[in-house]
Amino acid sequence: MIIMIAAAAENNALGKNNELVWHLPNDFKRFKSLTTGHHIIMGRKTFESFPKPLPNRVHVVITRQENYKPEGCIVVDSIEKAIAVCPENEDSYIIGGGEIYNLALPFTDIIELTKVHHTFEADTFFPKINKNEWVLVESEENQKDEKHLYDYTYETYIRK
């Protein structure tokens, strides 16, 4: 299965200047729990936003830069090639950024979305989920608290 995983605001904002514009520790824990042990597909800018590669995951980086070869990563130049290098019988995760989400949407089976209940100024956005193509099958609301400045909801969509 190809699973898209993201956190997006009410206005579909993902981030600004290659950084998230909120901090939700529980969402980071959920991301780690779901993606650990799997292939994760991302664009170069997303990969470069990490201080170091994420442990216990196979990084597949999409870039048009021919000599881009970060250690320990599989580098490809298209979403089709990224998906092709992932094991067919296992879950693989699309983790961003905005351009990669748009390219990967036609290949995606499941969307794991954390909806952050706020709007933010951003330069990168998550694609609009077409309700004619996707059905919400699970929703878990979470209230803001001392560690989370915003209410947020975990949403799981499957393709119709």
Automatic annotation (TrEMBL):
PROSITE patterns: DHFR_2 (PS51330). GO terms for molecular function: dihydrofolate reductase activity; NADP+ binding. It catalyses: (6S)-5,6,7,8-tetrahydrofolate + NADP(+) = 7,8-dihydrofolate + NADPH + H(+). Gene3D superfamilies: Dihydrofolate Reductase, subunit A. GO terms for biological process: dihydrofolate metabolic process; folic acid metabolic process; one-carbon metabolic process; tetrahydrofolate biosynthetic process. Residues 1-159 form the DHFR domain. Pathway: Cofactor biosynthesis; tetrahydrofolate biosynthesis; 5,6,7,8-tetrahydrofolate from 7,8-dihydrofolate: step 1/1. Its EC number is 1.5.1.3. GO terms for cellular component: cytosol. Key enzyme in folate metabolism. Catalyzes an essential reaction for de novo glycine and purine synthesis, and for DNA precursor synthesis. This is Dihydrofolate reductase. The lineage of its organism: Bacteria, Pseudomonadati, Bacteroidota, Flavobacteriia, Flavobacteriales.
